[in-house]
Write a structure and sequence with these properties.
- The chain is α/β, with parallel strands linked by helices.
- It has a single domain, classed as Kinesin (3-Layer(aba) Sandwich).
- Helix content is 31%, strand content 26%.
- The protein has ten helices and 15 strands.
- Strands 1, 2, 6, 7, 8, 9, 12, 13, 14 and 15 form a ten-stranded mixed β-sheet that branches. The chain has a three-stranded antiparallel β-sheet with strand order 3-4-5, covered by helices on one side.
- Strand 4 and strand 5 form a beta hairpin.
- Helix 3 packs across helix 5.
- The protein is globular, with a radius of gyration of 20 Å.
- The structure holds adenosine-5'-diphosphate (ADP).
């Protein structure tokens, strides 16, 4: 009879060779509107890793030009994480940037494209591609015993809403023996990538029609779409090895909200809360990068509390900073590039989840 065995940490470490955090920049194309207004292009992609704006050079793990396709970004940035999820790691991909720079385009694709076949749809974003890739990879690796679940939350004004539930009430966090959990969160079991895309579509629709949207815009909330995987594999000794991994795909609130301190159309509390999450995320990532820093301020915002098990130590993180090339956005673009530069270089050693 099969017995249960813990996954060997040393073998999983051999598997991991990449850095723990990657920061990439994607420059969106100039829009038709901007073209008509004779907007100047002030961002130049010098190489695959360097970008020049107003005579200042920035370097990142990768820079994607305005002509870069969705599949090019996916293959270079997210595809390597899928093997890590199957190996039992927690991974997070953030889209960070000013509203209108392509965060949602990058994460989900153009809204109408989600329900189509992603292979034929060049606009499909990271979430449908990751779903398809994960099922495909499990099949290729001949892993038959697995469960895939998805959840989708929106974080607005430090309140958590479940985008896959009809309930409008805010969800609360609680601690159980395995760590922080979201009370009552709907986690939907999916049997193929079409199921995942259907849940994504459902969540997007709920976000669009929600009554709370009367007084807020999506640019002021964060969304976290999580695909979690548990697998059972037998080793040569007939022992069952259980592994858990997940990928969080996070579309952050527009980064311009950080700078809108004196803006009249935002209520003070709302602004403070958006700032809190984005600023705390930046501080958490910087603290993780600093080997001498013992205290990581996860608890300072809901977003970092929710993602605590997916940032630092046992994890892989990618930040995709999206920017506009237009001279009219130069201040925001500079802020985004500076934030992204500060986020580079987390040096924790990853360790796989085990049971
Ligand atoms: P954000 O989520 O940052 O507010 P969106 O994803 O809504 O921005 O993008 C704004 C517009 O720009 C959308 O119409 C989107 O289709 C388009 N867009 C953004 N990035 C790209 C890109 N890399 N290539 C083509 N169109 C893009």
């Amino acid at each position: 009879m099969a017995t249960l065995k813990k996954k060997g940490i040393s073998s999983s470490l051999q598997h991991i060779s990449m850095q723990n955090i990657k920061v990439v920049v994607r420059v969106r194309p100039i829009t038709h509107n901007e073209e008509e207004q004779n907007v100047k292009n002030i961002v130049k992609c010098l190489t695959h890793k360097e970008i020049l704006m107003k005579e200042k050079k920035y370097s990142f793990d990768r820079v994607f030009k305005p002509t870069a396709s969705q599949i090019e970004l996916y293959i270079n940035v997210v595809a390597p994480l899928i093997k890590d999820v199957i190996s039992g790691y927690n991974c997070t991909v953030f889209a960070y940037g000013q509203t209108g720079t392509g965060k949602t385009y990058t994460m989900t694709g153009d809204k109408c494209s989600i329900i189509k076949n992603w292979k034929e749809d060049e606009d499909a974003g990271i979430i449908p591609r990751a779903a398809h890739h994960l099922f495909h990879e499990l099949d290729r690796m001949k892993i038959n015993q697995y469960t895939i679940k998805v959840s989708y939350i929106e974080l607005y004004n430090e309140e958590i809403r479940d985008l896959l539930s009809n309930d409008e009430n805010a969800l609360q966090l609680y601690n159980d023996s395995k760590g922080l959990k979201i009370n009552g969160l709907n986690e939907v079991t999916c049997f193929n990538s079409a199921d995942v895309c259907r849940e994504l579509q459902r969540g997007i629709l709920k976000r669009q029609v929600a009554p709370t949207l009367m007084n807020h815009q999506s640019s002021r909330s964060h969304t976290v779409f999580t695909i979690s995987l548990s697998t059972t594999e037998s080793n040569l000794a007939g022992e069952d090895i259980l592994k858990y991994g997940k990928i969080n795909l996070v579309d952050l609130a527009g980064s311009e909200n950080i700078a809108k301190a004196g803006c009249k159309d935002l209520r003070a509390q709302e602004l403070a809360n958006i700032n809190k999450s984005l600023l705390t995320l930046g501080r958490v990532i910087q603290s993780l990068a600093d080997k001498n820093q013992k205290h990581i301020p996860y608890r300072d915002s809901k977003l970092t509390r929710i993602l605590q098990d997916s940032l630092g130590g046992n994890t892989k993180t990618v930040i995709i900073a999206t920017v506009s090339p237009a001279h009219t956005s130069h201040e925001e673009t500079a802020n985004t590039l500076e934030y992204a530069m500060r986020a580079r270089d987390i040096k924790n050693t990853p360790v796989a989840n085990e049971q």
